[in-house]
Amino acid sequence: MAITMYHASVPTFLQLLGGLKGVLDKAQKHATEKKWDEATVLNWRLYPDMFTLARQVRQASEHAFGAGRVAGVEVPQLPAIDNSWAEMQSRIDKTIDFLKGLRPDQLDGKEDSQVTLTQGGQQRNFRAQVYLYHLAMPNFYFHVTTAYNILRQLGIEIGKRDFMGQMPL
């Protein structure tokens, strides 16, 4: 089977979002056992100029929606920030549900279509394949990895298998 835009992105987004759900669940259990303040953990960051844990999760979700932007379908509008473990899990659930609703024929063959989005207050146009492979996917990986790293830095007992989630069969 040839690698298509759908198969290169959606299954990977789903796999790593599942992993992110799992590491957040372990982190919540750990934080509850240790009686850590929820807001403090959700606002933890690796360095002062980096996004918080909650923002990393939001950004991962937003970049996963890139598959929908390529498909030309309206993506869910979710809250600007999550203020609880439950809200972060809900965001991931909604993102997963959205991605599961996409079909290969909605993305494949749209490599040369245009994707327009606003970044830093400026409208930017991309060829769909360039947008998906060179902006959405790398940013998705970055934010999922950074969320994982924040949790590891806090001492949450998670590992690569947790990060990876369940691979498709």
3D architecture notes:
The chain is mainly alpha-helical and 169 residues long. The chain has one domain (5-164): Four Helix Bundle (Hemerythrin (Met), subunit A) (Up-down Bundle). The protein contains eight helices and two strands. Strands 1-2 form a two-stranded antiparallel ribbon. Strand 1 (114-119) and strand 2 form a beta hairpin. It is globular. The model has no long low-confidence stretch (mean pLDDT 96).
Structural class: mainly alpha
DSSP E strands, number: 2
Strand residues, percent: 5-15%
What is the number of helical segments per DSSP (H or I, 4+ residues)? 8
Terminal CA distance? 15 Å
Major sheet attributes: 2 strands, antiparallel
**What is the fold-level CATH name, i.e. the topology?**
Four Helix Bundle (Hemerythrin (Met), subunit A)
Low-confidence stretches: none
Q: By CATH's scheme, which homologous superfamily applies?
A: dinb family like domain
Q: Mind telling me the CATH class? A: Mainly Alpha
Q: What order do the strands of the largest sheet run in, or round the barrel if closed?
A: 1-2
SSE layout and pairing:
Elements: H1 5-34, H2 38-42, H3 53-64, H4 66-71, H5 85-100, H6 104-107, E1 114-119, E2 122-127, H7 128-153, H8 160-164
Antiparallel strand pairs: 1-2
Helix pairs in contact: 1-3, 1-5, 1-7, 3-5, 3-7
In short:
The chain is mainly α and 169 residues long.
From the structure above, extract its key features.
two-stranded antiparallel sheet; 2 strands; Four Helix Bundle (Hemerythrin (Met), subunit A)
